Each structure stands twice: as structure tokens, then as C-alpha cells.
């Protein structure tokens, strides 16, 4: 693991690190915020999965999460959204290939050898940060935005007992029924729609639900409402009798101005359960 | 004036606007955050002047100021750092020309016709925002980072009775004695060092001081300490018996991770005086 940068932030440290990923067969970069408490004791961790086109950097610099994580004594991890590099397949579209890993393990050419973001987030990166930093891996929570909200919810519902709480900002909520989903799931997983269903949080919500509490925020002025399909997830949460809150936030759009506005409440929500 | 974008943020609105500037003879862009209160009554305003290489956008997206401005009921204005465009002079260096206006009125070719950032910030932009938005121009305060800290302090000390309070993050504090200063002041103002002295906050502090309170934060691990010369300003503040606080912040560097960490305290400091 190499240190790319470390900047003091809110009494703690915002680091950026890179490492050779076996899951993705390329060098991967991630951001990690450690609050001051981590100098003395292992701290709980909140995962933040980012959306289409983002790297590890966007949320780390624009979501304003460090202020609240420092206050609560929680680490934040900001993974990249896909494998990257010259030897990694790509597409001219912003929503396929590099920057658009969709948190799945690709089975189809040309994506299969590198695009294994599910294994990277579910297995490899937790093992790495658990061994390299003062993080208590028995206390994890997860959130994300857009494609990252999709990733957060699907990982939370699938990895039983991994996360104590799950939240999302404007998640891609029903990808098997949206152009943000059918395109990527088709490319990465092929035509077998049964494989797609494991990566649709509305379907997983109906089938499994999540054992902990769920918080979802969605702006009413989001320019991508037709692609996100929040109503399907809201309906599924209620049908499931899921312990959870789905909030429509009047006038907010899909941007980091929306995310940063509600970040304090998401961090506090997770902190309540991480420190329960 | 044209609306470039408007995003709902912390109950208020983060806008970006452009206009034909007479001071700079080109189109200029600025960011403006209005808290919810501005729907009903004119609110006080805090100016944030940015540093070298920045546009209006950097602080608006990375400094985390909107959270605190919303809490205090204060507008934020984020001007650009120089004139821009194809017809505007430039230099290959990051610290001269576009992105490096240094908050002066250039008198020398090729800069003179456009590089009039002093007049833009002191006269034109206040008149524009005072007429177009619900801002109480009798209650203004100013802050900034690096080159923008230099701009904030020099404007505050020169424009008597304009600002109730002034602060800075890692300001270029003694530009007449630094490579961050002699290069730009020489290029924009020529060889007459008497003209430079009006743009050196350490010299102005000795000569005038500031009628209101001053807050300065400087990281001890700032990679540009030799260029910023904070010791000269700290000495001048004490010699002047200036109402003010100069804080060395252990381990912090020159980045937005430093700025965002202390933004809450700067906004609260200004709010105390804007609402006095």
C-alpha cells in the first residue's frame, strides 16, 4: 500500500492510498478519513460509495462528511468506482466502463478480468483497511450516492451481519427496469436476468430486506428521477415492513449540494447504530 | 446578469451567475449562497476571496461554508480570482495572469485593460449583488484563502467602514517581500514600490490597522510558509495593538481540508459581528 497524500482535517487525517488490487487486477486508489480517536483506539467505519463518473476524490472533497465523522468518532472510506488504467477496458459513454463499475463482478468480455467491484468492496478493501488502520471492522455501516446508493443498499442486504445500518442519497433504486441498469447489468453480467436481480435494491428489499435500519434521501427536483425510480424502492420498503425512513426532500437535485446538506443526518444516523 | 446554475443547499440556494463586467471588460462569473432567510428579509453577507488558480467554484464546492452560513442566516459570495477569456492576457505560470489577479488594478501592459480585480471586488460586484439579491449591504464581512486572504485583509483595511470583521486562512501576508507578491505586483503595478505597499497587509496593518476584529488561521504544516510570511503579519498585528487573533493550527497544511476544518469558526466569528 502506498500513501498518495495525507491532509490534516477536523483534528484527524484525510488520507489517500493506492494498492495493487487482486480483485480488480490493477492499481486501485481510495480515500480514508480517520478521526482523532483512531490514534488511541480502533474506530467504527462508514463506507461511502460514489456515483457514475466519480473517483475516490469527489465525495472526499465535496460531501462535507469529515466534519460530522470527526464529531462522531467514525472513520470514512471512499473507494473508487471502478478499476482504472490503460490496460482496463473502457467505453466512450460516461455510464459504462471506467467510473461506472456498478458494484458487480463482471462475467462478460471485455469487462470480466478487471471489473470486479463487488469483490473489491465486499472482500479485498475491508481486509486491507482492517489490517492497515485502527478500524474496528465489527462496527461497519454503509452509504452512497446514485450508483453508489445502489451499491450500498445491495451490499448491505446481501452481506448478512456485515453492516449495522445502511443509507443512500438518491440511489439507482430499480436498475433492472431503468436505462441506468439494464445497459450496465447487460454489459457486465450478460443476458441472464436472474443474475441482474441480485443487484436491484428494490427486488432485494422485497426478497430479503435489511436486518438493520435504512435511511434514504431523494430530492424532489432531481434531474434523474426517471432513471433512479425511487418510488419502486419506497414501495418495496413499506411492503417489506422494513425498519426505515424514505424522505423526499423538496427542491433538492442530484448534486453534492444535496448530499452535503443531509450528510450530517446520515452520519448521525449511522453513529447511533455504530455506537449502540 | 445570467443564471448559470442554481442548486438547493442547506435550505437556501447556491447560485452561479455571470455578467458583463465593466471593471474587467469581460464576462465574469461568481457564486452566491443565499440562506433561507433571504426569501423574507435582506441578509448580511460574507465575502470569500479565493487563492491562486481558483475560480468561483473551488471554495463553493470544497470549503463547506454553506452549512454554517445557513445556520447563521448569512449570504456568501464567491468571486472569481481574475478576468478570463480568449481576449484576456495570460501567462504560462500558475501564479500570474488568469487565476492570479492578486486583487489589484493593473497599470502595466499587457494586464492593464482587464486585470482590475480591486475595482471589481470593491465597487462593481457589491453594487450588482446589492441590487439583484436580498442582501443588506450595510452588513458585510470578508474572508479569503492565500491570495484571497491577502485580498480580504487589504480590502478590509483600505475600505473604511465597509466590513464589520475580517478574517483569513493562510493569507499571503507580506507580498512585497515574497516571490508570491514581488512577481505579481511588479507585473501588474510596475516598478514603483510605493504602489505595492498599498497591497501588503502587514504594511497596512502597521499603518492603518482595521477598525473591527481580525481572525487569522495558519497551518503549521503549510507547504508554503516561506512564501506566505505569516510571522510578519502576526508581529504587525501585535505592534498595532490590533483587535485580533492569530492562530497557528498544528499539523494543518494549505489545502481545503484546512479551510473546511476552521470554516465553522470563521463564519461564527463574522456572524457575531454582522448581527451585533
UniProtKB/TrEMBL annotation, chains A, B:
The keyword Hydrolase applies. GO terms for cellular component: cytosol. It catalyses: S-formylglutathione + H2O = formate + glutathione + H(+). One of its GO terms (biological process) is formaldehyde catabolic process. The active site is at 146 (charge relay system), 222 (charge relay system), 254 (charge relay system). It holds the Pfam family Esterase. GO terms for molecular function: carboxylic ester hydrolase activity; S-formylglutathione hydrolase activity. It is an enzyme of class 3 (hydrolase). Its EC number is 3.1.2.12. The keyword Protease does not apply. Keywords: Hydrolase, Serine esterase. SUPFAM superfamilies: alpha/beta-Hydrolases. Serine hydrolase involved in the detoxification of formaldehyde. Belongs to the esterase D family. This is S-formylglutathione hydrolase. The lineage of its organism: Bacteria, Pseudomonadati, Pseudomonadota, Alphaproteobacteria, Rhodobacterales.
